[in-house]
Each structure stands twice: as structure tokens, then as C-alpha cells.
């Protein structure tokens, strides 16, 4: 809010002021006085917000976090299980305000000095975030040096401040840090005591409209236009639209915006729902020839206490609300000729969890699970002495519904539908077989369209089936072992170790190694309860071993099909981006020979593509060489390369190059190995290296 020395002097002056309206206001406000002396320290988070998928360097989400001491930062999960702070927006915004002398516009009249308490309050309130929300990913156009236009992804972060101002940050994707900030514009909302913020995004006739919905602690709700430059197909409102204007002292707690299709009006529409006290305020917005139509009302009779949390399933428009007494309501929108109505029912969680208090709810991205934060409720009319917070998961879909949604999905990415695949996984682990209807439907999909998504789905099902039929290891793999390893010391007196001891130590190590190999990539907690009883009968064990071998063969066949399909894609990129007899770092000849080595593999597309590439290569082979001994690395295996001297290098599954470095990347489920891009790589190879895992759609770290 000003130079450090001047701020320290003002704080001392206000704290010791003879005017109690100044001194008490200053001492009791934790924004001005974060230390608080006898008050508990401000450690923790006030609010957090996840960005859409595809915003960080790995194609995953960014996390905007607002701490209790009003510091807004953005974090990313760049390496596995490691979170890194990318930027502190509080500092950046404070620097911008300092340069502008704490004025929004250049033409604004100069304000008072920092020593005036109202000015001290104003400078703090214009930098104290209340809420922040991410927009969807939009596309901007940039011009290269050769006047060529190229599309760059960007995302917006709207930050609502205590004084009603909204800062709209625009970030270029992938977001790497302060250098990725494109712009920051401040909007005056005109709302007193703002409490909540949400993006309004609406698509009409392939035109994307956007705005910001702001709610007040006094009751009003309105949409503000957001003007953006150089964003393709982006439009906004001409002027603010008031959705609710009554100052009825019902604070707006949460706002959700759900895109829907109106079956009677035959057009897309936008449903805005807001929790106001114990009621749900809804507003249906749709654009017709007459303009923007607004229908609004309240749903009453839901809760006897104020709503503490609200979430929405954007797949079907279902809204869930909860109050602190443990009651969760499900609201299903039903369209009428003009607007809509809600059917609501009580989810009886008390039958499952017992007497609990609820503090928050959230629905998973595809609507498979409802997460509920609970603590113990009252027992015999008494509150518990200690609070134990738990996150409970409630399934909202059946296995059949999840499987059908995966088969008809427009996303065609298993990683983005991980909540649905978890339901399918649980069912197969429990029953130890893939349901017949799912197997038949998946085979039909593979025959009809042949998309690699359905092959990946088949691979996922086979792997879970294989996992369900394996015997659970006797030890839990994640638990550290406290046993001392046996060491043979032959020369020490009195330590004569017999051959039996050596064999015992060797067999113990072998047992541990086999357990590690068996449990690798598996969830032990899930298999422990569902494991098959160990049969002492050798004859009974043989059919199980045969079944496992059969499933293993099917897994290898599907993996080989997916590998060949990706090889064709890589060869297509090589053909499009290389000149005649140009040496790329990709082992093109080896990939071609690997594809043609199987006589049973008949793919006319692959043969034609390989023929064109071999013509372009003009009898050149361009083999890879081992960096240790300079021998040729033959392409005989898709997973690794072995030179004649026995040096083994893992192969990158995205480009099939050998990873001849000490650092490389792995996919989230540890399926595959990928190398890091290098500065000398051309753009098309860097694009290939940005892809997800070809087996499970997971991002690569």
C-alpha cells in the first residue's frame, strides 16, 4: 500500500490513535493487523480454484490459492508429487497499483495521503481478494515475424476484491510463470460487499459469449460484461444484466453456471444457480430473436439451516446442496414450455454415515462421485470433544451407467474420465470378470469405428481383470521394511555362514523381488480384499495360470496394436516434415522395418506410407548410435535398444528414440518412458513429445 517505512509509521500511528473508531477498527481488522498479537496466527487457506485441464506444462490443472492472510498465488504440479509456486499475483497487482498511484484510470482525481485512515483502508480493500475463478480456455491470435498468424491458447483468471473491483488476468498457455502474464484489466462491478464470483459462458450459433456473475452479501446478483481483444469468436454483453436486485439481506454463498439444451425452444441455454441463505435462486438465460430472455425464481423448502456448500454436475445439470445438519439435497431441472422447474429429493446420508455435520460437497468431473466433508454429529444431545474431518465418497452412478457413458463419450480420453473408469475398475475387481454386455458393446465399437480410444479402454479392462485374478502379496508394498539385509562376511572369525544361510538369504531376496514385480503398477489396497483363496491343489492352480497367460497374451496384442497405430502417426509426421535424404533424430528406418517385420500384419495404409518414406530416404538408413561405445543401436524392440556391447537404453514411447540421458519422463501410471525435448528439436518433434501416454491417456512427467 506504500513505502515500507511510511506504512510502518502509519500502522503505529493508527494503533495508538486517541480516536477509538480508528484504533479499534485498526486493531480488530486482520487485514490491517495480520499478526493479531493474542489472536491465532493466520495460517491456512481461505479459498482455492482449479483451472481447466490443459493449462500447465504437463497439460494438467493450475491451482489458484488464497491464503488467510490474503495472499493469492498460482501453483503447478510440474513433477510427480511436487507442487511449485509459479507466481504471486498479490505482489504483481500491488506493483501495478503502486505504479498507477493507486488510481484505476489516469484521469482520476488524486486521492488523500496514506496517513489518512480512509485512504489507508481504501488501498487495502482494493487489494484484498474475496474470490477468484478461472474461465474456460480461449484462443488468441498472434503474428509471427514473417506475418504468419498462429493460434495461442489462453485462460482468464477473475479476482474479486473487497471493494467490488474485479481484476481479469489473461495468461498465455502453457502457463510457466510471471512471463506468461499477457494482460490485467480492472472492472468496477458497482456491488457493495461482494461475496462470490463465477464465470458466465454461453454458446449461441457457434458464437461464444462470456461475462462475470457477481453476488453480494446483501442479496443482489448481476452479470458484468468482460471485453477482450484478439480472442477468436468471443463476444460479451453490451451492458450489465441484473439477475436479482432485492437488498433482502440474504447473502449469496455460491454461484454455479450450467450450460444446457432447451428441448422446447430448440436452442442452447444457460442455467445460473446461487445459494442464498437456505434457498436456491435460479435464473434461466437464453438468447432468442427478441434478445436475451431472463427467467428467475427461488426454490424453497430445501433446508432448515443456511446452505453451506453447493455443487453441480455439468453433464446433466443436477445441483446438490448441503446444510451443516448433515442433509444433502439433489435438485434435478425439468424444462417446461417457457422456463423450468426443479424436482428435489433428500439424499439420506445419515443411513450410511450416521449422525454427522457436513461442511462441504463437490461432484466429480463426470458425475460419478459426490465427495462430502463431514465431522461427528451430536451424540445423546452432546457435541463431540474433538472434530475429526473426513472426506466421504458417495457413488452417484451405477456401473452400467458409467460403462455406457464411457462407450458413448465425446471426450475419448480415459484420463479425463477417471471417475467413471474407477467405478468400472471397482466392479471388475469385485466380480473378477468383465461383464458380457460391456465386452460385446466394446467389440462392436472397435469393429465399427476402430478409434484407438476404444482399444485403450479394452486394454484398461484387461489389465484390471489380470490384476483381479492375481494373488495378493503377503506384504503391503508401500510399507517400509525394517529387516536387516543379510551380508556374507567370509573372512570374519566366528561369522562362518553356511551355504544354507546363503540360500535362505538369496531365496528371501528373490521372494521380495517377485513381490515387487507382481505388485508394480497395482493398487494393493483394492486387491487385498478381493484376492482369490490360495489353493494347495496343483491341479486347481493350473486353470488359473492358463487364464492369466491367456489374458496376458490379449494385453500384449492390444498393446502391440496401439504401438503400431502410434508408429503410423509418427511416420506420418516424419513424411510431412522432412526433405529428401534428411536425417531426423527419429529412427525412421527401424520403425518401418519393425512395422513390416510381422507377416500377419496387413495394413495397406502403413505399407503405402512406408513406401513413400523409403523413397524419400533414398536408401539411407540413419541408424542410432550408442553414446557410450558408438556402436549401432538396432530397432528390435519398441521398449528398449541394446547395442552389440550390451548397453541398454530405454526407448521413448512418443518418438521411439533411445533415451540416452540420465533424466527422462514417465507417464502418470508408469506405463511408458518418454524423453525430454531438447533445444535442437524441430517444432513437430516437440509437438509429438507433448502427447499423453498412448496406452492410458495419462500425462507424462
Structural description of this entry:
The chain is of the alpha+beta class and 701 residues long. Among the domains are: 1-188, no CATH class; 189-349, Methylamine Dehydrogenase, Chain H; 400-469, no CATH class. 28% of the residues lie in helices and 29% in strands. It is built from 15 helices and 31 strands. The strands form nine sheets. Strands 5, 6, 7, 8 and 9 form a five-stranded antiparallel beta sheet that branches. Strands 10, 11, 12, 13 and 14 form a five-stranded mixed beta sheet that branches. Strand 19 and strand 20 form a beta hairpin. The two termini are 40 Å apart.
Give the helix/strand class: alpha+beta
N-to-C terminal Cα separation, in Å? 40 Å
Q: What is the CA-based Rg, rounded?
A: 31 Å
Total of helices: 15
Low-pLDDT stretches are 486-538
- Roughly how much helix do the residues carry, as a percent range? 25-40%
The pLDDT mean sits at: 85
Measured by DSSP, the beta-strand proportion falls in 25-35%
Number of strands: 31
Instruction: Name the shape in a single word.
Output: globular
Biggest sheet descriptor: 5 strands, antiparallel
Please sum up the structure shown.
The protein has 701 residues and is α+β, with helices and mostly antiparallel strands.
Topology record:
Elements: H1 4-15, H2 20-28, E1 45-50, E2 62-67, E3 72-79, E4 82-88, H3 89-99, H4 117-125, E5 129-134, E6 138-143, E7 149-161, E8 165-172, E9 181-188, E10 194-204, E11 207-216, E12 221-225, E13 234-236, E14 241-244, E15 252-262, E16 267-276, E17 279-288, E18 291-299, E19 307-312, E20 319-323, E21 328-335, E22 340-347, H5 350-353, E23 356-363, E24 369-376, E25 390-395, H6 399-407, H7 418-431, H8 436-448, H9 452-469, H10 499-519, H11 524-530, H12 538-577, H13 588-596, H14 604-617, E26 624-625, E27 632-633, E28 640-642, E29 648-650, E30 665-666, E31 673-674, H15 683-689
Parallel strand pairs: 11-13
Antiparallel strand pairs: 1-2, 2-3, 3-4, 5-7, 6-7, 7-8, 8-9, 10-11, 11-12, 12-14, 15-16, 16-17, 17-18, 19-20, 20-21, 21-22, 23-24, 24-25, 26-27, 28-29, 30-31
Helix pairs in contact: 6-7, 7-9, 8-9, 9-12, 12-13, 12-14, 13-14
Amino acid at each position: 500500500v506504500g513505502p515500507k517505512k511510511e506504512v510502518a509509521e502509519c500502522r503505529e500511528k493508527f494503533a495508538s490513535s486517541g480516536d477509538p473508531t480508528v484504533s479499534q477498527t485498526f486493531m480488530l481488522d486482520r487485514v490491517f493487523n495480520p499478526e493479531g498479537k493474542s489472536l491465532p496466527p493466520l495460517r491456512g487457506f481461505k479459498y482455492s480454484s482449479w483451472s481447466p485441464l490443459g493449462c500447465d506444462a504437463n497439460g494438467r490443472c493450475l491451482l489458484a490459492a488464497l491464503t488467510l492472510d490474503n495472499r493469492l498465488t498460482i501453483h503447478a504440479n510440474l513433477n510427480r508429487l511436487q507442487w511449485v509456486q509459479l507466481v504471486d499475483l498479490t505482489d504483481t497487482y500491488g506493483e501495478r497499483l503502486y505504479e498507477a498511484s493507486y488510481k484505476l484510470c489516469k484521469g482520476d482525481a488524486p486521492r488523500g495521503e496514506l496517513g489518512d485512515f480512509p485512504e489507508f483502508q481504501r488501498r487495502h480493500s482494493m487489494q484484498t481478494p474475496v474470490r477468484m475463478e478461472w474461465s474456460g480456455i480461449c484462443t488468441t491470435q498472434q503474428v509471427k515475424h514473417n506475418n504468419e498468424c498462429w493460434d495461442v491458447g489462453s485462460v482468464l483468471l477473475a479476482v474479486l476484491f473487497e471493494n467490488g473491483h474485479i481484476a481479469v488476468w489473461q495468461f498465455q498457455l502453457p502457463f510457466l510463470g510471471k512471463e506468461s502474464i499477457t494482460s490485467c484489466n480492472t472492472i468496477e462491478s458497482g456491488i457493495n460487499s461482494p461475496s462470490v464470483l463465477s464465470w458466465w459462458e454461453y454458446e449461441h450459433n457457434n458464437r461464444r459469449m462470456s461475462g462475470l456473475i457477481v453476488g453480494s452479501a446483501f442479496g443482489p446478483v448481476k452479470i458484468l460484461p468482460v471485453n477482450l481483444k484478439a480472442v477468436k469468436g468471443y463476444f460479451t454483453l453490451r451492458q450489465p444484466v441484473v439477475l436479482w436486485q432485492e437488498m433482502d439481506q440474504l447473502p449469496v454463498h455460491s454461484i454455479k453456471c450450467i450450460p444446457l439444451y432447451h428441448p422446447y425452444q430448440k436452442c442452447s441455454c444457460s442455467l445460473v444457480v446461487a445459494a442464498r441463505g437456505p434457498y436456491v435462486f435460479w435464473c434461466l438465460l437464453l438468447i432468442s430473436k427478441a434478445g436475451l430472455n431472463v427467467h428467475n425464481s427461488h426454490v424453497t423448502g430445501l433446508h432448515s439451516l443456511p446452505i453451506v456448500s453447493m455443487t453441480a454436475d455439468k453433464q446433466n445439470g443436477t445441483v446438490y446442496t448441503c446444510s451443516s445438519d448433515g442433509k444433502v439435497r439433489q435438485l434435478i431441472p425439468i424444462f417446461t414450455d417457457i422456463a423450468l422447474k426443479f424436482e428435489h429429493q433428500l439424499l439420506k446420508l445419515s443411513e450410511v454415515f450416521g449422525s454427522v455435520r457436513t461442511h462441504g460437497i463437490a461432484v466429480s468431473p463426470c458425475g460419478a462421485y459426490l465427495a462430502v466433508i463431514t465431522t461427528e454429529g451430536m451424540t445423546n444431545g452432546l457435541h463431540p470433544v474433538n472434530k475429526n474431518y473426513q472426506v466421504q465418497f458417495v457413488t452417484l452412478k451405477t456401473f452400467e451407467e458409467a460403462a455406457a457413458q464411457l462407450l458413448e463419450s465425446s471426450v475419448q480420453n480415459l484420463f479425463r474420465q477417471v471417475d467413471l473408469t474407477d467405478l468400472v475398475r471397482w466392479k471388475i475387481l469385485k466380480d473378477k470378470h468383465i461383464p458380457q454386455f460391456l465386452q460385446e458393446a466394446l467389440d462392436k465399437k472397435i469393429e465399427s469405428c476402430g478409434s484407438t480410444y476404444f482399444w485403450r479402454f479394452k486394454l484398461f479392462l484387461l489389465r484390471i481383470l489380470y490384476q483381479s485374478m492375481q494373488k495378493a502379496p503377503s506384504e503391503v508394498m508401500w510399507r517400509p521394511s525394517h529387516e536387516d539385509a543379510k551380508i556374507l562376511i567370509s573372512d570374519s572369525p566366528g561369522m562362518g555362514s553356511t551355504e544354507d544361510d546363503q540360500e535362505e538369504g538369496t531365496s528371501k531376496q528373490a521372494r521380495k523381488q517377485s513381490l515387487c514385480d507382481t505388485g508394480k503398477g497395482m493398487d494393493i489396497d483394492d486387491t487385498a480384499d478381493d484376492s482369490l483363496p490360495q489353493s494347495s491343489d496343483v491341479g486347481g492352480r493350473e486353470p488359473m495360470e492358463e487364464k492369466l497367460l491367456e489374458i496376458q497374451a490379449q494385453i500384449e496384442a492390444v498393446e502391440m496394436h496401439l504401438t503400431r497405430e502410434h508408429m503410423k502417426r509418427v511416420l506420418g509426421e516424419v513424411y510431412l516434415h522432412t526433405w529428401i535424404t534428411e536425417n531426423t533424430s527419429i529412427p525412421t528406418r527401424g520403425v518401418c522395418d519393425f512395422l513390416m517385420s510381422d507377416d500377419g500384419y496387413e495394413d495397406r495404409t502403413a505399407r503405402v506410407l512406408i513406401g513413400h518414406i523409403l523413397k524419400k530416404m533414398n536408401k539411407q538408413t540413419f541408424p542410432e548410435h550408442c553414446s557410450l561405445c558408438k556402436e549401432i543401436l538396432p530397432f528390435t524392440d519398441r521398449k528398449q535398444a541394446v547395442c552389440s556391447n550390451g548397453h541398454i537404453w530405454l526407448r521413448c514411447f512418443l518418438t521411439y528414440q533411445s533415451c540416452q540421458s540420465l533424466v527422462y519422463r514417465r507417464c502418470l501410471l508408469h506405463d511408458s518412458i518418454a524423453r525430454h525435448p531438447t533445444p535442437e528439436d524441430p517444432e513437430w518433434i516437440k509437438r509429438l513429445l507433448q502427447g499423453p501416454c498412448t496406452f492410458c491417456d495419462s500425462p507424462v512427467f
